Amino acid sequence: TVRYVGPQLDFGNVTILEPRPGTLFVLAGLGVTYAITGEIIAAQTPLGLMGALPSQGGQNALSTVGEGGGAAASETLYIEVRQDNVPQDPLAWFSTDKDG
Fold this sequence. Notes:
Layout: E1 2-7, E2 13-20, E3 23-33, E4 48-50, E5 78-83, E6 86-88
Antiparallel strand pairs: 1-2, 2-3, 3-4, 3-5, 5-6
């Protein structure tokens, strides 16, 4: 369930998901968000796009695969996992091996 979508202080666009009761995923740094607060989303549903929009001063905001790989862009996705309002190590939630 999407609990919040919108701007948050210096984090820019923030999306907060509640995949199960008491657990929150906080995602910040998306240039464009697709989710709507209160929406129940299916697994693998896109939540947004990284990077600034051209209207936000992002000269190279959107690129296609192979256009420099984004090395010059300051795109960072912030992920925070909270269980019962206590921060958790996200590595326990997301696979990190190359086989996924």
